[in-house]
Design goal:
mainly alpha; disordered N terminus; about 70% helix; single chain
Length: about 325
């Protein structure tokens, strides 16, 4: 039986060329080719950046270890503690040390690298739907957050005054919630924000339970060392989940009571929770988890791989 190709059966135009069935086909192909080319360029640039970008994980780890230490003080002294258990408080504690400006500048450069790492992760080739798309949005928000912290660090390094970083996170959250509360629909928005933050807490907990981050650590040859790093990552992520759950709780509570004083960042939420029964114990557990997460970031830095999110991971 004779075979006919699809092109042979297609109608011809007056110029002898085959008719175009899909007018948007060429445009779609052009867009697809441009996207593929952009992803390829981003992937190549990402591979080059990966090695120096790992220093950003070390800087992030240092910040979390310091937050954990400050949170321990908060758990011991309660809400009356003068310590600020937040990223700004961590930077302030560095600035107050000998050679503080230099140390702050080094951490600041590292956090810029980490912000760029997250930015690359958000645009590198991979999947752009479902779970992967949500991860990309989360990575973009992370890049913005750490970029903002790096900007604050630059101000501290220039002035040498660590106090301007201390308490900044709580002030920003309180100001943001206060402005929303002034709107007629503000309470609903604040409550919705609490639900979103609770979703972030669930995502951290799921990552800890499923150990999805472990695939980047297969290069650690020693089994016991790898398991120790994985365990520190799990406990650290659970601590982050608990801290975000507290932030979500106080956001929803603020929406319910119409009281801006209820909200805060990490420090504000931990500080308020110390007033609850068993609150200081919970805050102490979170503090230990922060230290472990910081150690995880430092120990896993050289094995981290820069790649775009995929739905099958």
């Amino acid at each position: 039986m004779a075979r006919f190709s699809g092109s042979a059966l297609a109608p011809r135009g007056s110029n002898g060329s085959h008719g175009v069935i899909d007018p948007g086909g060429s445009a779609g192909s052009a867009v697809g080719a441009a996207k593929s080319d952009a992803e390829q360029r981003a992937g190549e640039l990402g591979r080059r950046f990966q090695y120096v970008g790992r220093l950003g994980w070390v800087a992030k780890g240092v910040v979390y270890v310091l937050i954990g230490i400050l949170a321990f003080t908060l758990a011991r002294e309660g809400a009356s503690s003068d310590e600020d258990a937040s990223s700004g408080g961590a930077i302030a504690s560095i600035a107050d040390r000998p050679f503080g400006k230099v140390l702050v500048a080094i951490v600041g450069v590292g956090l810029v690298l980490y912000a760029l790492w997250r930015l690359f992760t958000a645009v590198l080739p991979g999947d752009w739907t479902g779970k992967a798309l949500l991860e990309r949005i989360g990575y973009l928000l992370s890049a913005v957050a750490y970029g903002s912290l790096a900007f604050t660090i630059a101000q501290v390094a220039r002035s040498g005054n660590g106090e301007q970083a201390s308490g900044q996170e709580d002030r920003m959250v309180t100001d943001w919630v206060g402005r929303l509360m002034e709107q007629s629909y503000g309470r609903w928005l604040v409550g919705a924000a609490g639900v979103v933050v609770a979703g972030v807490a669930v995502a951290f907990a799921q990552k800890a339970i499923t150990r999805s981050f472990e695939r980047d650590l297969t290069a650690i040859a020693d089994q016991r060392r790898r398991q120790a790093v994985v365990r520190s990552g799990q406990l650290g992520l659970l601590a982050r989940a608990m801290s975000f759950a507290l932030i979500a709780f106080f956001l929803v509570r603020a929406a319910w009571t119409f009281d801006v004083a209820e909200v805060g960042g990490i420090d504000g939420s931990l500080r308020q929770f110390t007033g609850y029964q068993w609150g200081r114990i919970v805050v102490g557990v979170i503090a230990a988890g922060f230290v472990l997460y910081g150690l995880f970031c430092v120990l896993s830095a050289r094995f981290q791989r820069l790649r775009g999110p995929r739905n099958d991971h």
